[in-house]
Each structure stands twice: as C-alpha cells, then as structure tokens.
Amino acid sequence: MMKKGIYAVLLGLLFFSACEDNPYSQGEILYNNFCSNCHATDGSGLQGLIPPLAASDFLDKNRDQLACIIRYGLADTIVVNGRTYTQEMEAIPNLSRFEIANILNYVEYSWGNKQQYFTIQEIEASLEKCE
Q1: pLDDT of residue 13
Q2: CA distance 109 to 73
Q3: pLDDT of amino acid 21
Q4: Is 6 inside any structural domain?
Q5: Is residue 79 a part of any domain in this protein?
Q6: What per-residue confidence (pLDDT) applies to 131?
Q7: Secondary structure class of 12 (helix, strand, coil)
Q8: CA-CA distance, 47 to 116, in Å (whole number)?
C-alpha cells in the first residue's frame, strides 16, 4: 500500500513538472544559443544594424520565409517596422526542422508577438520551397 502511495506522488510530480509555465522553453534555449547574440535576449536587435524580432511586422508579412532565413541565412535588404536593414544574416544550416519550429514558436510568442503556432508540416513545406 505504501509503494502505491509513493508511486502516485512521483507520478503527480512528473505530471505537474511537465506543465511548465513556459511551453516554449526549448525554443528559448535554442534562441539564446543561436540568435540572441545578434537579435538580443529581448528581441530588440541592434539599432540600425540588426532588425528587431520584438513586435516585428516582418515576421507576420514573411511567415512562409522564416524557416528558410534561419536555415540558409539572408543577404537581402529588408524593411522591419519601417526601417531598412542591410546587414547579412548568417545561415544556421545544422538546425533540424524541429529546432527551427521551436525557435520560431518561441519568437512568435515572445516580446508582444502573438502569431499563429508553427507546425512541423509548415516548417517542412517552407524548407522544401527554398532548398
């Protein structure tokens, strides 16, 4: 009887620890490892050089290109929130489609961004188009 009680407590702890406050914690870790050096931990970018991701109109307008930009980089001039950016973004080719989805979902739900959730299928379709 005592064993069942202990198992029930352990199972409950596992269940409640799985319900974390930040469902995008994996994306946050990946973002901090691969993106925050340029785009800053708060998504503000580097004024005049690196575009912001926080409250960025570019994210919504270019949703279908975001996975490709992460994987293959970006050399084009872009306009974000009315400001022109010419700094090249380096590719991160070794990220899996799951890691890209995690990063994008973290970015899309951080710093005032509230866009639609990225699915793996959407990431795969985007990556197929730009390969």
Answers
A1: 47
A2: 22
A3: 67
A4: no
A5: yes
A6: 74
A7: helix
A8: 27
Token output for 119: 């699915």
Q: Assign residue 104 the CATH number of its domain.
A: 1.10.760.10
β-bridge mates for residue 80, sequence order? 83
Q: What values do phi and psi take at 110, rounded to 5?
A: -120, 160
Query: What is the DSSP-derived secondary structure letter of residue 110?
Result: S
Tell me the C-alpha distance between 112 and 127, whole Å: 26
In a domain, 104, yes or no: yes
Residue ranges making up the domain that contains 71: 23-130
Q: Is residue 91 domain-resident?
A: yes
pLDDT single digits (tens) 77-90: 999 999 999 999 99
pLDDT tens by residue, 87-115: 999 999 999 999 999 999 999 888 877 87
| Number of domains making up the chain | 1
